[in-house]
Amino acid sequence: MKTPIHDYLKKYAESGTVRLHMPGGKGLVYPGDITEINGADVLYESSGIIRESEDNTAALFGAAASCYSCGGATLAIQSMLAEACAQTGRHTIAAGRCSHKSLITSAVLLGFDVDWIYPDEFPCGTIKPEDAEQAINGDTAAVFVTSVDYLGGECDVPAISAVCRKSGVLLLADNAHGAYKVFTGDHPIKYGADMTADSAHKTLPAITGTAYVHLADRRFRDGIKSAMALFGSSSPSYLMLDSLDLCNRYIAEEGAAALAAVNRVRELKNKLSAENIPLRRSDDMRVTIDVNALGYTGAEYAEMLRERGIECEMGGERCTVMLFSVVQPAGDFEKTAAAVLDIPRKTPLVPGDIPIVRPEKVMPPREAYFSRTETIPAGKSAGRICADIQSPCPPCVPVVMPGERIGAETAEIMLRYGIKYIKTVK
């Protein structure tokens, strides 16, 4: 696998060229830290080494085209949504209610409306194909699904794709947690998604903040690049681009090692299940434990694991999530199993589920966000119109959206979610 970006950066670093250009580090600590100089291509108008590397990525993922993001999956999602509205001329997105906050920030920035598709529980991203079909109307530009979600849940992407094809709308997939699916063969782009946003850094060996937009049709490519230039920095990081370029080599040459890691996760799940550890069904890179059944909240259980040398991805009310990678050292799986089995069981707790709320929509997200606002205690916000995007990370899923009237139940849930204050329309 060729690595055109990496090769250019290496050659430039070794050339002895006097760097009378940005950035100010002059390569003294990070030799590959350059800007878009002659020969280095331009990310948002790529036609040289970046384009060659992106084309390599597309071939590996089975996409018609791929675009690099140095702004994470957030920039990728914003760009997909902008292109969907531009391509269709429509201004509504039908989306799973438990979507990442980048969906609602895009609605604020772009001015589109959102028709919510409700899952069965919070913060689950899994939605049913029949619910997606019911949400589609004449102004729907696209259906937006989260698959894989933060707890490891997955949508029936092929079935939802069939619904979208029948209805003549696009299917966009937030696959931020599922870039490793390039190895397992069940990537959303192969299952009928028109565009996907993948975080390379979550499960692949790439620098934090690196991501892709994968496209099923090359006609979307110019629009995605234009939208990235609209939302993203005009100074993309070549250290991140180098990381994505080298990740291509890993994907091309280390498939057996990556699948071995996938199998180790599956074996860990089997081992824990055999010891009656209650596991939630999850994707191939997560072990999600229903810790209420063991007598703990997710945060308490995560602290117990921390004391045993294990740092988890998330400890919520009900679950503790452990996220693995395709390059996870083999010894980590034994250590994880030993730590989990070492934690004593206690009397089970009543499950601490956060219910799905369906607030009244009063005004568009953009209008609410840019209204005159005041910040008030969340516990006293019932009856007010939300003007904020409050979404503690993880899982970065808002409870209430700008433009929605906050109910008493919603106000209580925000407090459980750790939200003490919220901006409301004045």
**Strand line-up of the largest beta sheet:** 1-7-6-5-4-2-3
> What is the mean predicted local confidence, pLDDT?
96
Task: Identify the quaternary structure here.
Answer: single chain
- Secondary-structure element pattern, one letter each: HHEHEHEHEHEHEHEHHHEEHEEHHEHE
CATH domain topology of the largest domain: Aspartate Aminotransferase, domain 2
Q: How big a fraction of the residues is strand?
A: 5-15%
The percent range for helix content is: 25-40%
The strand count comes to: 13
Q: List the uncertain runs.
A: none
Total number of helices: 15
Q: Name the CATH architecture of the largest domain.
A: 3-Layer(aba) Sandwich
The biggest sheet, with number of strands, parallel, antiparallel or mixed sense and barrel status, is:
7 strands, mixed
First-residue to last-residue Cα separation = 57 Å
Q: Report the C-alpha radius of gyration, rounded.
A: 22 Å
CATH class category label of the largest domain: Alpha Beta
Question: Overview of this structure, please?
Answer:
The chain is of the alpha/beta class and 426 residues long. It has three domains: 4-253, Type I PLP-dependent aspartate aminotransferase-like (Major domain) (Aspartate Aminotransferase, domain 2); 255-342, Aspartate Aminotransferase, domain 1, CATH 3.90.1150; 365-425, Molybdopterin biosynthesis moea protein, domain 2, CATH 3.90.105. Helices cover 38% and strands 14% of the residues. The chain contains 15 helices and 13 strands. It has helices at 4-14, 49-61, 72-88, 101-110, 129-135, 157-167, 181-184, 200-203, 221-231, 238-253, 255-274, 298-307, 331-342, 365-369, 408-416, and strands at 65-69, 92-96, 113-117, 140-146, 170-174, 195-199, 211-215, 279-280, 286-290, 314-315, 319-323, 373-377, 421-425. The strands form three sheets. It has a seven-stranded mixed β-sheet with strand order 1-7-6-5-4-2-3, with helices on both faces. A four-stranded antiparallel β-sheet has the order 8-9-11-10. A two-stranded antiparallel ribbon has the order 12-13. Strand 8 and strand 9 (286-290) form a beta hairpin. Helix 2 runs parallel beside helix 10, helix 3 (72-88) crosses helix 9 (221-231) and helix 5 (129-135) runs parallel beside helix 6 (157-167). The longest helix is centred in the middle third of the chain and has 20 residues, at 255-274. The termini are far apart. The model has no long low-confidence stretch (mean pLDDT 96).
